[in-house]
Amino acid sequence: MIEPLLSDETLLEDIESSVDSGRGALQLWWLGQSGYLIKHGPWRLLVDPYLSDTLTAKYSATNKPHVRMSRRVVDPAKLRDIMFVTASHAHTDHMDPATLAAIRQVNDGVAFIAPRAETRLAQERWGPIREGDPPMILMSDGECQGFVDLSIFAVPAAHDTLSRDADGNAKCQGYVFRFGEVMVYHSGDTVLYDGMVESLRSFGIDIAILPINGKVGNMNGREAAQLAKDIGAKVVIPCHYDMFEFNTADPADEFIPECERLRQAYRVLQQGERFSSAEIPGR
């Protein structure tokens, strides 16, 4: 069992004690799989959090057991002052009802952002909107939501293919977050697709967070390194590995060698580890 670098109370202490280490610095923590907590000024966002054993329990008696490789980083009920939770698509390791319920229970006023194409499932997993709660924010690719010095852009993701509903809304999407002067791209689950590089390059990405497992509709480590280079990302962080035994990868096999060959800056995090935008080369 892989132990997080920081977990439980030590992780919570690191989140609370972290301060801007440079002008407009952003802090993020890897929570496992594709999940991240992002902190910038007053903002605290959770992106694709999976902090339960929902899938392990669901598939325990099947021919596709989801055996955990890593210990849970933190109880989601202990994550406070969360303002937004985003889900890139409907798969449970990205839109987990147990994790969402725990976060919602302890964070009054938290808003949920999900693909418009998955409205019914998003409503089911988030639960009824209570009096005084913000409405659920449903987005499709090409749309933007703005909140003072935070902007959230939805971009397409091809989880195997670019799948859309009858109204043309993408069923899977990534997000580009603009926190002040820092641009963060979280791809969700995706393979490469036509037009992807041109679209993302226009954002001026500082931090790209990309899957490297190379199966179940995701790019591999070489492809992630090349995409980061092609879109001009100042640093790339790999994700979507070391959660389940049947669906993982080692960054040292493909991702790191390809980043080094391409001279693409990268950072491999341990679960529970913090990264600051002040560490980005050239900032």
Descriptive notes:
By secondary structure, the chain is of the alpha/beta class. The protein has one domain (8-19, 27-277): Ribonuclease Z/Hydroxyacylglutathione hydrolase-like (Metallo-beta-lactamase, Chain A, 4-Layer Sandwich). It is built from seven helices and 13 strands. It has helices spanning 8-17, 54-58, 97-106, 119-126, 196-201, 221-231, 255-262, and strands at 27-32, 35-40, 43-47, 84-86, 111-115, 137-139, 144-147, 150-156, 173-179, 182-186, 207-211, 235-239, 274-276. It has a seven-stranded mixed beta sheet, with helices on one face. Strand 1 (27-32) and strand 2 form a beta hairpin. Helix 6 runs parallel beside helix 7. The longest helix is centred in the last third of the chain and has 11 residues, at 221-231. It is globular and about 50 Å long.
Keywords:
283 residues, alpha/beta, six-stranded mixed sheet, seven-stranded mixed sheet, single chain, globular
Largest β sheet strand count, sense and barrel closure: 7 strands, mixed
Structural class comes to alpha/beta
Look up the CATH topology.
Answer: Metallo-beta-lactamase, Chain A
Task: Give me the CATH architecture, please.
Answer: 4-Layer Sandwich
CATH superfamily: Ribonuclease Z/Hydroxyacylglutathione hydrolase-like
Radius of gyration: 17 Å
Q: What oligomeric state do the depicted chains represent?
A: single chain
Q: Helix-strand pattern, N to C? A: HEEEHEHEHEEEEEHEHEHE
Task: Please state how the strands of the largest beta sheet are arranged side by side.
Answer: 6-5-4-3-2-1-13
Task: Report how far the terminal alpha carbons are from each other.
Answer: 36 Å
State the helical fraction: 10-25%
Beta content comes to 15-25%
- As for the number of domains, it is 1
Question: How many β-strands, per DSSP?
Answer: 13
Poorly predicted segments: none
Q: Any idea what the shape is?
A: globular
CATH class designation: Alpha Beta
Mean pLDDT: 95
Number of helices: 7
